[in-house]
Design brief:
Elements: E1 2-6, H1 10-17, E2 24-26, H2 29-35, H3 39-47, E3 53-56, H4 62-75, E4 79-84, H5 87-99, E5 103-108, H6 111-120, E6 124-127, H7 129-134, H8 139-151, E7 158-161, H9 167-175, E8 180-183, H10 185-190, H11 195-213
Helix pairs in contact: 4-5
The chain binds SN-glycerol-3-phosphate.
Residues 6, 26, 28, 128, 130-131, 162-163, 182 line the site of SN-glycerol-3-phosphate (G3P).
Length: 214
Amino acid sequence: MKLFLDTANVDYVAEIAEWGVLDGVTTNPSLVAKEGKDFKQTVLGMCKHVSCVSAQVTATDAKGMIKQGEEYASWHKHVVVKVPMTTEGLKALKYFRSKGIKTNTTLVFSVSQAILAAKAGANIISPFIGRLDDASEDGMGLIAEIMEAWSNYKFDCEVLVASTRHPRHIVDAARLGAHICTIPYDVFKKLPMHPLTDSGVKKFLEDWEKVKKG
Ligand code: G3P
């Protein structure tokens, strides 16, 4: 399973990349606005640390998406063009696939959308589970349905679980065989934590002091 960081903060990417477990980054316009930094420099900064950085187009028509996406892809070979799940987005996905430009389809909320994006040529689809939970729907249930559908075919398209909100989301996504999880910084920092590890390390060190004192 690949682990991505969901952020537009380059320092966070550098920090987690040092752990040796980070496979990629997803950004979106809201995350970029929150950081208030230059978009191109942000993406290039992240590309130094990971080999897959999603950069989202903001155009709403296929022609505009293609123009923006081609520019983003020209910045660095690690850039993946993020395209919204609309009918215009589908046209853009088809074009990007024909040109060998990698894509991630965002704002996926149903199995039918997932299938269309995969057929149009998306390399990655991003179902948003937290936002479905927020709407009293079953986000992880959608992942289960998509993975079941994927097991029937050979889609060249990875399922990225997005809008994760807590560590259990990552565990459940892994149990369902999802290919990628994108994780907010504060949730990522919780993943290595366990109180029994902390108390265990403390006890080992206390006992080792006794050995040293003889
Ligand atoms: O990057 C897309 C997605 O992960 C957004 O998450 O928390 O805004 O629903 P959230």
